[in-house]
Amino acid sequence: MRILGKKVRTYVERPKFEQVISFYEKLHNTSSELRFDIHEGCINVAIVGDIMIFSGTAEALAEIRHIQATFLVDALDDFLLLLIARGGEVLRVTYNDRLGRHLWMRNPDDLVVDYLESGIW
Question: Where on the tree of life does the source sit, at the highest rank (predicted)?
Answer without folding.
Answer: Bacteria
